[in-house]
Amino acid sequence: MAGVNNRVKSTNDIELKDRLVAINRVTKVTKGGRTFSFAAIVVVGNEDGIVGWGLGKAGEVTTAIAKGVEAAKKNLIKVPVHKGTIPHEQLAKFGGAQVLIRPASHGTGVKAGGAMRAVLESVGITDVLAKSKGSSNPHNLVKATIAALGELRSPFDVAQNRGVSVEKVFRG
Known about the structure:
The structure is a single chain. With 172 residues, the protein is of the alpha+beta class. Helix content is 29%, strand content 35%. It contains five helices and eight strands; from the N terminus they run βββαββββαβααα. The protein has a four-stranded antiparallel β-sheet. Strands 5-6-8-7 form a four-stranded mixed β-sheet. The mean pLDDT is 89.
């Protein structure tokens, strides 16, 4: 599961910025007519390696977004960002959505679309190549992207686990 060992414990001293990924108007038909409500998927991050997502549902758009932000603050994960990009290539799947994220050289920018872009920019990644396959459902894309980011391992952790220096990890 994504981010099992890299969950953020406290959000008190973290300045988080929220991004609205998608808003969906949902209709419930009752005998009195149609009742409209809204579902908002929101991504929050400090643009320095911490990101989370949340889903808020309410009768008004602003309330749904506020609920989504509160839900996002409850499931933050820490992502290893190395020189503005990710340490290695990662593939992840959630539902029908499959995402591939690859490190990119400095100056490349965030080559990702829609829901993936919001997540990657919220983490603070400035250079990355991303591809989504399968479903383009924003809910599943956000969850798959966060799963991929949660599975990333920093070069320092890999070096420590192998018992070698960080330079040796980078050389192969």
